[in-house]
Structures are given as C-alpha cells and as structure tokens.
Amino acid sequence: MTTAASYFQTHAEADFDLQRPADVAVIMPTIIRPTMKEALQSVFRQAPARRIQILIGIDRPAADVALIEAICAERPAHCCVNVIYPGYSTSLRHGGLHPASDGGVLRCVLTYLANSQYVAYLDDDNWWADNHLSSMLAAIKDHHWAYSLRWFVHPDTRRTICIDQWESVGPGRGVFAQAFGGWVDPNCLMFDKLACHQAIPWCRRPPGVRLSQSALPRPRHGACHGLLSAQSRRPQSRRPRAGDRRRLCRRGGWRRYCAAIVADRNIRCRDRRKE
After folding, report:
1. Residue 225: what pLDDT?
2. N or C end of the chain: which has fewer CB within 10 A?
3. Are residues 67 and 36 in the same domain?
C-alpha cells in the first residue's frame, strides 16, 4: 500500500483491550526511514513485558507504509501499534503550517492521543536498551518526569563510542545549562502527561525557542536512574564552549568521540586503498 492518501491502522492482538490504558505509551514521529526497524524492535524487546502502546505518526513518507506493516508483524502480544498519517505534513519545512522541523505537531497530537499516563519518545533512528522502559517506570514512581543518560554512537559504523557527558545530562548541567537551564534528549525522557499536561503543547515549539520555567507549574524533581539506555548518532551541539571544553576533555568525552570518528574514517580510507 502507498502513503499517497491518509492512513490509520492498528496492529494488535484480538484480545488486546484498546480501551484499557497501557502501562506506557511510546511516541515515534517518522518519515519511514529504514532505521525505524531497529527502533521498533528495541521497543518490542523491552523486558519484563508490559502493555505498551506505540503511536507512529508519519510526517512526510520517504518510503511505503508496507515497511511499517512488515515490522509490526513481528510485534509481541503485549504491544499495540497505532500508525497514523493524515495525508499531509504539519511541518513547515514540508509545506505544513507549524515550525517544528521534527514532525510538526505530531509529538503533541500523539501525546494527547496516547492511552497511557506515562509517555516516552523514540526517534526512528535511535534505539533503547532492553530494560529502558522498565527502569524508567521505576524511576518515575512518585515523580512527574524522569530521564536516562545516553550513549553516543558512530553515525556510519553504529559503534558505541562514549557516554554523553555534556549535552543530555539533565537540569542545570552540561553545555545547555546557561542557555536553557539544561537539556534532556526526548529519547531519554519519560513523563506523566496528566501531571505535566501544560507542557504537552511545547512538544511542537519551533527550534531555538526557550521554554520559560515561569510559564509552567514546577513539577516534582525528575529522577535520573543512571542507566545508559537511549542511544544517539551524534552530538547535537557542534562543539562545547571553551569553558566547558576543558572540563569535558578532562573527562575524555568529547575528545574520545572526535578521535573515534577520525580513526574510523582513516580505517575506511585504508580499506578503500587496499581494494
């Protein structure tokens, strides 16, 4: 089936009660990249098994929706997958009206649609450790939100390089502490959407717009459970600022990442010369 027209499909076992709230909902905006297979499979592998609702929102499809259908055929019985494509993109860069470049309003809308109190986000080119959701649910107990740390992974070889020690490190820390009060990669986040409902519209804010802490009620402090679960391709910042760079280089994080990139490129160049 092509994705020229609007599309809505639910992949679930006959005895999966859709009305009963899931233990956790996973939101995945996508343009149907091949990497989403690994992303979805990492959700299917979560242990111990819990009732998981996965909501996939298609922005502008780069491939046929049959790819998603083939992946969903492998889903375990405790997972339900809702696939939604309105027939158009809501992102400004693809002809829509909303400035968020990573799916327009899909994160916001799918968060409201999720039939679970707890929501987590996963991009279609990232993946989780097998215990990610269970550890996050344990961490968020008695809190409004929780986050994990993440690994940096080489964008070409997908080799694990190092722990992110300077970007997605939580409130008041890292290279974004001065500009934004800290930052957490959405792939590392879980929150209680009933307690944090006023933050949901900010899922669609344009890049560079700062979320004012005074605009939202202050939630109970999030709990970092310390597990390195979500994985990312590359740092989001081009380079740490000078003040942070010295501290980060002492830890070896940024230096190790850059050295691994250079070493891998040199290996591939040598391999091509041998050929």
Report:
1. 46
2. C
3. yes
